[in-house]
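Contributing new records

If you add data, match the layout below exactly. Sequence lines come first and carry their own label; structure lines follow with theirs. Keep one chain per record. Anything else will be rejected by the validation script.
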Amino acid sequence: MRVDVSFKNLENSEFLQNVIDKDLEKIERRVQIFRKDDPIHVAITLEKSQHREEYTCNAHIYLPQHVLRAGEKDKRASSAINSTFSALSKQLDKLKYKVEAHLKRKPIKE
């Protein structure tokens, strides 16, 4: 899984990297249903507002047949990251359920 993290108007810190890594571990467990040879790309952007004490986290997960997107704003960077990854986890769980249901369907015999 390829991960790209970018920061706008703020510097990368060990604390923020630890928060992102912890949430990425949860995402990695959820994407195991997809074939290992298929490329999975995660793009994360963390931005601090220039005019307010507000952080925005946007994340995209590029799966073989789908693109999942989530974005959240908060007064703390760690809360914005956690909220974004929570939304992505819900989307992944829903997609995983649909894929598993599709794979379990029996073909119709004529």
